[in-house]
């Protein structure tokens, strides 16, 4: 595991990313200690005030402290992104495993089905859902997961394709192991690397997706806020109320970069530890 | 009087406390062959790579490797700059790897790979270089060189790939050819043909050859020097061995006995035990745990080099100095 | 109840072909890897299939193990036609015929310890004896130390990996062990060790081997009969001594000369 760039250690991405996310999570969890306010607490005498000693990050339209709102909003954002990722990973991995292992007609049908799904205009679906009027966080999680599992399925399937031809899988089959045992006990652990990498990268892209959804109105509904909704609030007067979009934007960027670095770092780790099994991700 | 082209003295390779090989000294003359024999893991591949400065980064190479470029100017490989080494590798010292297909660019056809090498060494019009490429392919035994020119690495069988690999190594018109277990992946028939090919090409072009193998029979079929390595240490150096020259080191003798049994389709007598891990070699003579002649001194001290005359050296406290050949 | 002299494995007129992407307007070219090969392995006997690379030896093995569907021919294992079996029956049959593949490292799951690999085999075969003891005994017979159970495959030497594969194959006390080029990646001293080991195990456990190799000299001490093939076609077959010392076939002579 020697790095070619002489002075940069190979796992710098992983370390930096992990530090960033750990600090972020700590910041989000320690909310009540950092800020004395509650996120819904309105102070109409202080609406739209820029950062000051009382409100280090300023206030929003209703005089609510921005720092507090960002802390609680972050929990929502990361929470729903993580949940949606877990759901997408579960669906995508199972489909990918089965398609990759069995191949044939089943695989053909699934892949064409995925192609069709990927071809659907997402905006259209989102607007349709918004138009139905019903909106909840659970729905957001579901929508995000349903948009994301296809990519995971493709990646898992590609890796399963490679792994299933390996001799140790053939040996397991020759032993007389049942197919489900071969798939879940032998193939799955050996494609777990790319799955983890995809999961981490998915969290970061879902954080961005969430902001986009909030922008369109399908997201956390007031008074609950996520970073996306807060970002959205600053839209009417971006220069005048610069602190609203700026700070929420910065937090989004930090978390996206952090997760991306972790994903990269794990990817590097995988490629260096098992150079003979090149992972496709 | 043959001229020295590569002189190695007291070469050793270490990483922290692990010694990968040590005490290596030999001199290779122009047009001659040196065969290095040893088991898997004895350090012979690392030795080959170190000879051209390709030892893994971080490893410490001590001793001296003098390469007499064009038989005159001496280059000390251990201290040469990367730039000097890159002019030597490929053009003056050619390398054939164990697994040919792994050393090819899968996106280039065989002809293009060779052309690539030629272009970096020579100037010349595209046509002359193409003719040279075809000539090289013919030299390594392809009757239909034009077809081979267009083939891609994945279309080649093992034997064909090894031959293309040889053509690549010869493209730079080297003075020394280092072949690291080149017939490893080949079956017995292809192996024999391939080794004969290397022999013929080297004698035709007056190339010096360093051949690494674990097959002692192969080694004895070449005339030249033989260096027997065990667990990173030299066991014996023989010169022009034949049925008459009797090896002195018990390890060499055991290998020869095994080879002889196999050649006669009999069950061979195995050498007891296993080769030691390079990280935990035995004290004293590294072969002593498996040697039927071992005495307490073999366990306590490392045997020094003994000169048995006519370029025959052995590292053993109780070498076979005289033995009747039946 | 099987009749007394029924062979363990019987292969009749096996044909294995591969589709390859075509050129010149032919969409699929069928390459015949194996053409019309027949042989059998009787109880108490070991057979060696010898030929150069690309002679179809591996395709024969893969067909016997059920990983490739042959284009034609029949394969009978313990009297049962394997092409007629359902997948459940095939799984059951697999217990009796175990492979030891050429690439010993690639045959071991890199994410499992050697111990868990061997325990899994024990579980599949429902071995009744106390598991730990059984594994220890087996490892001693094969020449591996007990500490190996907690290691991973990348921590083992080539020889050790091969022995682990052999141990796994032997756990279920199979009727036939198939060895695919077991000597190809070894230097002669390891070859000598392994030949002697295989011979001892065969005598101790009354094993039957089907060995595939390109090297006639190494398999001679192990085999009772030799089948020589070339480019997927039958060349000759007979008892070891006859083939090695009294053959009249030119091709077999080339193979013999290559190693002597």
Describe the sheet with the most strands of chain C. Answer: 6 strands, mixed
Cross-sheet strand order for the largest sheet of chain C: 6-7-8-3-9-10
Silhouette of chain C: globular
User: What oligomeric state best describes the polypeptide chains here?
Assistant: heterotrimer
Count of DSSP H/I helices of chain B: 10
- Indicate the radius of gyration of chain B in whole angstroms: 20 Å
Number of helices of chain C: 9
Q: Could you tell me the number of beta strands of chain C?
A: 10
Low-confidence stretches of chain C: 21-28
The outline of chain B comes out as: globular
What does the average pLDDT of chain C come to? 84
Name the chain pair with the biggest interface and residue counts per chain: B-C, 35 and 33 residues
- The average pLDDT score of chain B comes to 84
Helix-strand topology string of chain B = EEEHEEHEHHHHEHEHEEHHEE
**Percent of sequence in beta strands of chain B:** 15-25%
Distance between the termini of chain B: 35 Å
CATH class of the domain at 4-104 and 175-191 and 200-230 in chain B: Alpha Beta
In percent, how helical is the residue content of chain C?
25-40%
The helix content of chain B, as a percent range, equals: 25-40%
The biggest sheet of chain B amounts to: 8 strands, mixed
Low-confidence stretches of chain B: none
Q: Could you walk me through the main structural features you see in this protein, from its secondary elements to its overall organization?
A:
The complex is a heterotrimer of chains A (281), B (326) and C (260). Chain A is 71% helix and 0% strand. Chain A is an all-alpha fold and 281 residues long. The model of chain A is unreliable at 1-5 and 275-281 (pLDDT under 50). Chain B has a domain at 4-104 and 175-191 and 200-230: 3-Layer(aba) Sandwich (Rossmann fold), CATH 3.40.50. Chain B has 10 helices and 12 strands. In chain B, β1 (4-15) and β2 form a beta hairpin. Chain C is α/β, with parallel strands linked by helices. Chain C has 9 helices and 10 strands. Chain C has helices at 57-64, 87-94, 114-125, 131-142, 158-171, 188-205, 216-219, 240-246, 250-259, and strands at 9-21, 28-41, 47-50, 72-77, 80-81, 97-100, 176-180, 209-213, 225-230, 233-239. Chain C starts with 8 loop residues before the first strand and ends with a helix. Chains in contact: A-C, B-C. Chains B and C meet through α7 and α9 of B and α6, α7 and α9 of C.
